[in-house]
Amino acid sequence: MDPSFIVLIILVVLVITALIKTFKTVPQGSAAIVEHFGRYRRTLNPGLSIVVPFITTIRNHVDLREQVVSFPAQSVITRDNLAVNIDTLICYQVTDARAATYEVTSYIQAIEQLTVTTLRNIIGGMDLARTLTSREEINTDLLRVLNEATGKWGIHVDRVGLKAIGTPASIQDSPQRSYRDKNGPTIPPGGKEATRTASQSHAQTDSPPVHQPLREGDPRRIDRYELKARLGQGGMGTVYLGRTPGGRSVAVKVIKRELATDPEFRKRFAREIITAREASGFYTASVVAADAHGAPPWLVTEYIPGPSLCDALSRHGALPAKTIQTLAIGIAEALQGIHERGIVHRDLKPGNIILSSTGPRVIDFGIARALDGTAITRTDRVVGTEGFLAPEQRTGAPVTFATDLYAFGVVLCHAAGAVPKDGESLLDSALGLLPSRLSGIVTRCFDHDPAGRPTPTEVIEQLADRQSSGEVWLPPLVRTLIDLHNQPIQSTD
Questions:
Q1: pLDDT of residue 201
Q2: Catalytically annotated residue among 87, 96, 141, 347
Q3: Fewest C-beta in 10 Å: which of 127, 213, 434, 470?
Q4: Binning pLDDT at 50, 70 and 90, where does residue 470 land?
Q5: All domains of the chain, ordered by start, with CATH?
Q6: From CA 50, how far away is CA 245, in angstroms rounded?
Q7: Within a 13 Å sphere around the CA of 198, how many CA atoms are in the beta-carbon half?
Q8: Would you call 296 helix, strand, or coil by DSSP?
């Protein structure tokens, strides 16, 4: 072949490569940081941009959409030396991609640490009674401090909220027990993940009831279902314990009236109903009935008597190794069934796992997503619970079945009682607490590459041969909680 022809081919390839590298596409709702030889050059906005090939490097892609994150509950000491658990929700948006990239190592971790520090300062100046009645004051002070600090990071915090103010397991300590003896038990307001804690030795007298009484303004009936008690409250609405005309117990989710007036929200709620029906199985809560067009909209599911994993861990601490293994198999079987229906849960966490006498059950498909790309929640927000988000959820990359396996690994670490020390990761903290076979599975679950994480089927195959049949899977203290959930409901008339 003629050498000049070969040179011509090489030149053509180089020209085509240069042209390809010259054009960069940035998706809507994001920005790209451009560097030349390691130094900041400019920020690319959404759309098609022209860059210098072989010199330009894309340093970082920054998500400019509003993001909603829920931070894990933090224990904070009040002025009267009482510990409360504060569960916070932060809504923020990146306004300066350059500052968010270069002014702070990880702005989400910085916001979390700043939130914890600020809450400790604010609540440290309040007694318990004022803390429980001053949510708006705490929210306002927290929002002000966050915006003062995050402005230089190119972040604007739109709003903050306290999802729950609850008393942690440390209420067993004598100072708090004396406070309760003097003032009576306090049932803090909270959402579906609010911690219900008490001393096991006083379970029948000191514990807040697992079925909270109906409040003024609560409906007494939804369709043909009579409402008997409150089970929990979240951002979308309230979940009640209901009863069918035949006397069967059901869980009734009633949407807030202010949300019910939003046509887009009704569409999302209708999608949640469809997803919950599609995901129904032995390891989830079956849908009984629903009406996305009701006034207000509502969803009725099977009532599963038992505490959430979040409640059990808050009350009684880490679970035994045998219980964790059974828990892992049960959750894996639930995910297997959910994934077989083409659904990604996207918010697997202790608060969405109910411990029943027959095994764990996965609930709440409010932000689940089908792999066909149909999202239930708004598409301009990154949703999920901070601490359980897979790397691809943080970056806005497509979610897959492997996304749930990352959260699955985090759940097992929490079940084992992992508490990271300074500079230690959650995984490192958990490895010494988990059985060897589970340690290997959890390590794979934390793989940043979704393809490296195990499937639910692989988890089941690795653990099932070690499972002992016929044994009671829960420790006595947790079984007592299940018994409390099975107690008859007192009349609200």
A1: 33
A2: 347
A3: 470
A4: low
A5: 22-64 (no CATH), 66-166 (3.30.479.30), 213-303 (3.30.200.20), 306-369+384-492 (1.10.510.10)
A6: 67
A7: 24
A8: coil
